[in-house]
Amino acid sequence: MKKLLEGIGFVLFAQGVAGLVHELTGRLRGWGVVQHLGFADGYELYLSIALVVLAVALFAAAESSEKTR
Question: Quick one: pLDDT at residue 28?
C-alpha cells in the first residue's frame, strides 16, 4: 500500500510541478496534464498548486501507514 501511495504521489507531484513551471515561466509546454483540461481554463495555477499539496498529503499518508504496522 505504501508503494502505491508513493507512486501516485510522485505522479501528482510531477504533474503539479510541471504545471507550475509552465504557468510561471512558460516552459515545459505540453508536459503537464493540467494544460490539457478544458474545464480548468484559467485555473491552471491553482490546480497545479492543489496537485502538489495533494502529493505531499499522499506522501504523509504513506509514511503514516508504514509507522502504524
Answer: 78
- Provide mean pLDDT across the span 42-63: 93
Distance CA 6, CA 63 (A): 9
What are the phi and psi torsion angles at 15 (to 5°)?
-65, -40
SS3 65: helix
Kindly state the cell numbers that stand for 35: 494544460
**CA 55 → CA 16, 26, 38, distances in Å?**
9, 23, 22
Say if residue 1 is exposed, middle or buried (CB neighbours under 10 Å; 0-12, 13-18, 19+): exposed
